[in-house]
Predict the 3D structure of the following.
Amino acid sequence: MSTLNTAERIQPRLDSTTILLRSVVVGLTLVTATIHAQLGGLMFMANAIGYTTLALAMVAPGPIGQVRWLVRIGLIGFAAATIGGWLLFGARFPLAYVDKAVEVVLIAAVTVELWRSDGGPLGVVRQARGLVGRLAGHIGGTPTARAAR
Amino acid sequence: MTQSIVRRAILLFASSLLIACTAATGAGGSPPPAPSGGAVITAQGIAFDRQQLEVPADRPFQLLFENREGAPHNVTIFDEAGQPLFVGEIFGGPGSRTYDVPAIPAGAHQFRCDVHPEMAGTVTAKS
């Protein structure tokens, strides 16, 4: 790991497994976005827009690609919150159960990708600390930023 | 290359999603007649066509529910404590169901769609 340069650590090589896994994640995200869009109403539409935005962020290049780990965390959190909301307040009907199954598999797929690409929770913590350090550095020479450097 | 294809697929998907959402308005027209001694209600545009229903008290009745859009809806009636007196089947439209509602006590009760709780109203059971 220590032999990898910064660019390789930020954006892992796109091998066939990574591409397949990413395709599964994006596909499942778009499936649940479609289901929520079909339900209609403000809340479900907001949910569909959220999922579609996260699907785009999963393949967006440039600066977003450098914080893909954050997008993965966001996607896991969003899907978990959606499942939690349904468990607490949601109606029970066949399409809802199908959607929840899709979201559970989605969380599992994103978790696998997070492990492969970011090195699991410890890797995420390291990247988060790095991001905080860089942000603090941009804000301007705080002790936190100096320590991060 | 692969990311470019995926991005194009997402853009295509987003466009289809927008078209699907704007097209899912369902058919218009006047509501169907209520069953004898019962009531009728229609769902369209994520809203019921009425917020007040009158039904007979203390005897079973039929509630004709017409769902005029693709989104799934139902009708559930609650007592004052928020406990369901009747839960109608959730289904996507366009289509209709005739619910056989058991006897409910006289008075004003709340009804709503379980999928979209913002779709709600009052059902008044009269002797």
Summary: The two ends of chain A are 19 Å apart (CA to CA).
